[in-house]
Amino acid sequence: MLASVGVRLSAASRGKVSLVSVSRRLCTKHPETQASLPDPLPDSEPPEQRRPKKDPAECSVLLFPGQGSQFVGMGRGLLQYPNVKEMFTVAQKILGYDLLSLCLHGPKEELQRTVHCQPAVFVTSLAAVERLNHENPKAIEMCVAAAGFSVGEFAALVFSGAMNFAEALYVVKVRAEAMQRASELVPSGMLSVVGRPQAQYKHSCLQAKEHCKSLGIEEPVCSVANYLFPDGRVIAGHQQALDFLQQNSRHLQFVRTKPLPVSGAFHTELMESATEPLREVLRQVEVCRPDINVYSNVDGKRYMSEQHVRRQLVTQVVSPVKWEQTLHEIYERTHGRKFPYTYEVGPGNQLGATLQRCNMKAFKTYEHVDVTIHEED
Question: Quick one: pLDDT band at residue 315, thresholds 50, 70, 90?
Answer without folding.
Answer: very high
